[in-house]
User: Which sequence fits this backbone?
């Protein structure tokens, strides 16, 4: 205990020293998986950050930003924790951000509490992450945003009575399962089976798990897997096992339809229904501007996805903090500035940081994958406005603490 | 549980295990050389298949053939320059050397290609489902079962009915005796090593759809390959075949019935198998 307090003291001293030293330049520590299975996610978020800087050159006013990037490698949390420690103690950053995987954010929470460093989560979606430290605010999503929305929509819109859930066995997977179940069963549905399908570190062979789901003959099969390669493998297994022909609809959070992998998924994915806070086909000026700039920078077939937009919005939040505090980052004032912050120019539509929970409030879009002129496109079939994290609203489990 | 589709799914993953592991079994049986880098050859084969299809537009079958040839050639080079130096070394030296080779290959692939997983784009005739009359099932799984069975048949005929097969069997059973009647075991080993590595490469390409393909591949599946060889018995093609199928089907069924248990069962079963029959279920005593 004593050592811990000492450590906290040391961190506090270090942060004080840093705050007084660099007044006009704000140092932002970015923790992302740059290698390993999550390298693509890291790249999307990083590009989102860069795109914000490019498209909004005046956002930081007279203040300078310096980025210090660190690789969080595996989704275990251990590497991220080391990285955050280094960023705070040695690099003397003012704000830490990034965090693709939930374990990364969870492992880093005690550090930012001890050192009092504002932490802006750009992805990690386990619902109770914002409960872990008053220093954490989240610009991405909670698994409950899409999970609960999809559960509600499955019962009401798709008229499903029974569902099987398949999920990757780590915190956000279980979260997504709970969220869907609550949303679905509150509205009259019944989850008849929940299948853990391996960990996030590698793409498993989904065949046995999908076989089990098929044997249960549900109306809908709700799948949560990390976005990216997992998602492509899901639609392949779904098609290969003939689940569509068996009358089972594949649904899930938008992690299943990552925009930059969409065209790779092919016809297998047509008809897939998802709930999410962003897709590249959203029709608003901010998004059109982002997509156009993205294609120009990274190629005509490239596309921003939800992680890129979270990186983008995360920088908008940090810019807001920096300009409000006039370049001097005081941790408590930074949190005050973030609480209730509204951003109308997000590519995903209007967003806000909930002053009570420091989590995001945003729209959820229901979309169906359709084919238009040989390209897969997300067709909007419904919008839920200003959705809060239902886990904290309903005070479920760890979200109540 | 739908019995037939479960069985088909399990058989398909067992066939992949068989194709990848059979080479390991033969080389281990023949030379007593513990080649932990075997999976790395499978991985390299997978990358050759993926890249030749993506960049040169080779059809799937031709890409597999290219994978076989390329990796078999590489195996000959490595065998002559590196492996041959360690034949008389202790098993620990062999293990250290081959695991080191695995790390080198992982690093090279990560550096050259990147850490992300690769996907084999299957030709249309292997995609989707096939109607077998009594059941509709994933075409690719059926194709794997067919390919694995044909390979088994070919290997069996090769080992049992050809002169070179007879030499290999003789060398596996009693190396000194084989040498004393004039079999050039050294050259025989180069040949089987190349064949085994080439087969692993084909397995890497064929199995990428099921096992995936990324730089961590050789380490991730190492335990599985070793289990198949240990259970099947070293140097026994038929033994490896049945062991691979057994493990493939059991793994598949257990994943369906107890998804929480993950891979635990396979290790438990292996333990039981090996306690009961240390020489492998299909291995011969004293072989």
Assistant:
């Amino acid at each position: 205990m004593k050592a811990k307090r000492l450590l906290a003291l040391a961190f506090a001293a270090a942060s004080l020293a840093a705050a007084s030293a660099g007044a006009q330049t704000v140092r932002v520590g970015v923790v992302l998986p740059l290698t390993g299975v999550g390298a693509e996610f890291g790249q999307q978020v990083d590009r989102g950050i860069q795109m914000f800087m490019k498209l909004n050159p005046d956002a930081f006013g007279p203040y300078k930003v310096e980025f210090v990037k660190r690789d969080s490698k595996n989704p275990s949390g251990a590497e991220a924790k080391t990285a955050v420690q280094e960023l705070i103690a040695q690099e003397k950053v003012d704000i830490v951000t990034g965090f693709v995987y939930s374990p990364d954010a969870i492992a880093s929470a005690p550090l930012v509490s001890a050192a009092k460093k504002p932490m802006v989560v750009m992805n990690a979606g386990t619902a109770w992450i914002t409960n872990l430290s008053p220093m954490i605010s989240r610009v991405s999503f909670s698994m409950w945003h899409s999970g609960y929305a999809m559960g509600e929509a499955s019962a009401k819109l798709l008229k499903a009575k029974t569902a099987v859930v398949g999920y990757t066995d780590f915190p956000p997977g279980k979260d997504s399962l709970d969220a869907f179940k609550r949303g679905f069963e509150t509205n009259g549905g019944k989850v008849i089976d929940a299948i853990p399908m391996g960990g996030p570190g590698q793409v498993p062979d989904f065949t046995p798990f999908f076989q089990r789901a098929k044997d249960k003959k549900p109306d809908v099969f709700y799948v949560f897997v990390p976005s990216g390669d997992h998602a492509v493998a899901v639609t392949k297994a779904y098609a290969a096992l003939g689940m569509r022909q068996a009358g089972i609809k594949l649904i899930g959070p938008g992690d299943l339809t990552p925009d930059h992998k969409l065209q790779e998924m092919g016809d297998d994915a047509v008809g897939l229904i998802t709930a999410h806070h962003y897709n590249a086909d959203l029709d608003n000026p901010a998004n059109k501007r982002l997509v156009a700039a993205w294609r120009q920078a990274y190629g005509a077939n490239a596309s921003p996805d939800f992680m890129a937009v979270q990186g983008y919005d995360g920088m908008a939040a940090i810019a807001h903090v920096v300009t409000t505090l006039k370049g001097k980052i005081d941790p408590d004032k930074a949190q005050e500035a973030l609480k209730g912050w509204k951003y109308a120019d997000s590519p995903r539509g209007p967003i806000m940081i909930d002053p009570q929970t420091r989590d995001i409030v945003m729209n959820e879009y229901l979309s169906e994958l359709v084919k238009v002129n040989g390209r897969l496109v997300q067709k909007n079939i419904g919008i839920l406005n200003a959705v809060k994290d239902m886990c904290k609203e309903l005070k479920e489990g760890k979200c109540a603490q | 549980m739908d019995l037939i589709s479960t069985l088909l799914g399990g058989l398909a993953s067992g066939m992949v295990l068989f194709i990848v592991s059979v080479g390991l079994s033969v080389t281990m049986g023949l030379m007593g050389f513990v080649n932990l880098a075997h999976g790395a050859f499978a991985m390299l084969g997978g990358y050759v298949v993926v890249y030749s299809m993506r960049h040169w537009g080779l059809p799937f079958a031709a890409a597999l053939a290219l994978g076989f040839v390329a990796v078999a050639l590489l195996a000959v080079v490595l065998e002559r320059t590196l492996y041959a130096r360690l034949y008389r070394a202790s098993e620990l030296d062999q293990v250290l050397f081959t695991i080191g080779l695995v790390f080198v290959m992982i690093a090279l692939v990560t550096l050259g290609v990147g850490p992300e997983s690769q996907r084999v784009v299957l030709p249309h005739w292997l995609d989707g489902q096939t109607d077998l009359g009594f059941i509709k099932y994933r075409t690719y799984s059926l194709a794997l079962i067919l390919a694995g069975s044909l390979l088994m048949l070919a290997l069996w005929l090769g080992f049992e009915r050809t002169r070179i097969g007879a030499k290999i069997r003789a060398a596996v059973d009693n190396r000194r005796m084989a040498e004393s009647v004039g079999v050039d075991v050294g050259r025989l080993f180069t040949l089987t090593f190349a064949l085994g590595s080439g087969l692993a490469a084909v397995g890497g390409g064929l199995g990428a759809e099921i096992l995936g393909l990324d730089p961590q591949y050789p380490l991730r599946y190492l335990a599985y390959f070793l289990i198949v060889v240990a259970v099947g018995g070293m140097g026994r093609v038929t033994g490896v075949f049945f062991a691979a199928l057994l493990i493939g089907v059991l793994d598949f069924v257990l994943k369906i019935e107890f998804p929480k248990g993950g891979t635990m069962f396979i290790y438990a079963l292996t333990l039981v198998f090996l306690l009961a029959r240390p020489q492998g279920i299909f291995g011969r005593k004293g072989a």
Summary: The domain at 2-141+285-358 of chain A is CATH 3.40.50.2300 (Rossmann fold). The CA atoms of residues 148 and 183 of chain A lie 4 Å apart. Residues 2-21 of chain A form the longest helix (20 residues). Chain A is about 40% helix and 20% strand.
